[in-house]
Every structure is written in structure tokens, then in C-alpha cells.
Amino acid sequence: MILRTEDLTMQFGGVTAVDAFNLRVPEGEIISIIGPNGAGKTTVFNMITGTYAPTKGKIFFGDKDITAKNPSQITKAGIARTFQNIRLFKDLTVFENVIIAKHLHLKSNWLQSMFRISGLPSWLSPYPAEEQRFQEETEELLEKLELSDQKDAVSSSLPYGRQRRLEIARALATQPKLLLLDEPAAGMNPQETQELSSFIERLRGEFNLTILLIEHHMDLVMDISKHIYVMEFGLNIAEGAPTEIQENPKVIEAYLGSDD
Ligand SMILES: Nc1ncnc2c1ncn2[C@@H]1O[C@H](COP(=O)(O)OP(=O)(O)OP(=O)(O)O)[C@@H](O)[C@H]1O
Ligand SMILES: [Mg+2]
């Protein structure tokens, strides 16, 4: 297991957003979490990535206890995420968005990040060799994700599906082993959603990733998941292979019934 939680619990005041969740993510697989709005899915991601410290329970990454580490420690350990609502530097180019992700998350020296963000030329960087390496890695990453053609475009000018892809590029810039995708198909049209399915599969292979996915598009989830966890009101009400989940009466009642 690359990721494992033990009785992971998050309470906000009187609300138990996540209730004793036991998640198992085998290395190299695509595992999904589904469930109605407010079920607690994003809160699970927020605990794994250190945004929230769990009220109770533990999180293990490999054999390392990462419970309540801060987001920067989590990134350095090898976990990256995307957000339900796209988070990009809207006025910056595709290339800048990716290279800044490297600077913000992989640098021990904040000064160098500031050099980059303030738009100073790279030869002014206090660490030109590293800057050079970041630039090359960014070029290579954009090439692999088929974003090279748009590398100088301002990110807000991209079509929505491309912005989602750029968000994934930013996550991959930190060279994670485990990638958490929070509703990557949200706002996409049917064609973009369909392309996303093979894109995620390709990512897993090319970057040796394990992927944990939150998604509402059932076609996508059923198509690519090895195993699915279903949450409702903070509880894990079912888990299993896609075919088992589709036939599970509890799931149909909680979720699939209302949607499909
Ligand atoms: N920071 C917070 N403070 C208080 N309550 C919160 C906070 N974050 C989440 N919650 C509550 O926790 C519950 C779970 O929210 P969460 O965002 O994890 O749901 P979700 O399954 O991701 O839903 P969606 O499909 O709508 O994204 C909700 O009742 C939500 O209002
Ligand atoms: Mg959510």
C-alpha cells in the first residue's frame, strides 16, 4: 500500500465530515472516492495533504506516518493534488505556472522563488544551474502533456479543459509518486471528459503514478478505477470493484439513483 488511513476522522464543530475512514491505496493503481455533495471526499484530501490535521486517526504514506504534517512536507514526501476549483495564476503563462510550482514547492530557498515570481530574468537567479534544470524539466513536462504549443499563452486564455490539464501539470511539476485529483472533469464537456479518461491512464504509466480520484462523472470513474470507495455523510458506506459498486443497493440509493 502506498497510502493507508486508519480511522481517519474530521469534525468541524458538531459536524463529522469524515467518520473513521479506512482507505487502502495500492501502489500503481487508480482508486476512486465517490459520493454525494458534502459526503466528505474533499475533506479526506485536505487531511492527506496536510491542509487539516485530522481530529482522530492516522495516515501512512508507505510505512511513514504522515499524519498532520504540513502541506510543504507532504509535497516533498511525494504527494501532489489538484483542486476542485481550478487554482492557476491567471495572468501568467502556461510555462510560468508550471515552473513556479517547482519553485514554490521544491525550493528550500524562498528568495529564489521571489526572483522568479517577480519576473526577473533567470540569469539574475542566485542559483543559475538549478534554474536551468527547472526550465528544462518544465519544457519536458509540457511536451509530455501536449501543452508545449500553448506554453506562452496566458493561462486564463486557455479553454477550460486545457486549464484543467495545466493544473495537473502544476501538480506533476513537484514530481509526486501519488497524485490526488479532486473532480478533474468538473466543468468539462462530454468530449473533454472522455479524453480525460485515457489521459489519466496515460499519466499513470508515463509518470509511474498512483492516482486517487474524486469524481462525479460515473462513466469516467467506472471506466478507469480499480477499486471504488463510496462515502455518504462522512461514512464509507461501500467499497469494491466498479461492477460491485454499480450493483450495490446502498450505493444506488445514496448516489447513483439520484444522478443517473
Ligand atoms: N473548513 C470547514 N469548516 C466547516 N465545515 C466544513 C469545512 N470543510 C468542509 N466542511 C463540511 O464538511 C462536510 C464535507 O465537505 P466536503 O467538502 O469534504 O464534501 P465533498 O464530498 O467534497 O462534497 P462535494 O462533492 O460537494 O465537493 C460538509 O458538510 C462541509 O460543509
Ligand atoms: Mg469536494
Structure in words:
The chain is of the alpha/beta class. The protein is built from ten helices and eleven strands. The chain has helices at 41-48, 71-77, 94-106, 110-117, 128-144, 160-172, 190-206, 218-224, 242-247, 249-259, and strands at residues 3-12, 15-21, 24-25, 30-34, 56-61, 64-65, 79-81, 178-182, 210-214, 227-232, 235-240. The strands form two sheets. It has a six-stranded mixed β-sheet, sandwiched between helices. Strands 1, 2, 3, 5 and 6 form a five-stranded antiparallel β-sheet that branches. Helix 3 (94-106) runs parallel beside helix 6. It is globular. Adenosine-5'-triphosphate binds at residues 12, 15, 17, 35, 37-43, 84.
Find the CATH superfamily of the largest domain: P-loop containing nucleotide triphosphate hydrolases
Shape: globular
C-alpha Rg, in Å?
19 Å
Mean pLDDT, nearest integer? Answer: 90
CATH third-level topology of the largest domain: Rossmann fold
Helix content: 40-55%
Total number of helical segments?
A: 10
Q: What small molecules are bound in this structure?
A: adenosine-5'-triphosphate, magnesium ion
Unreliable parts: none
Strand arrangement across the biggest beta sheet: 7-8-9-4-10-11
CA distance, first residue to last residue: 32 Å
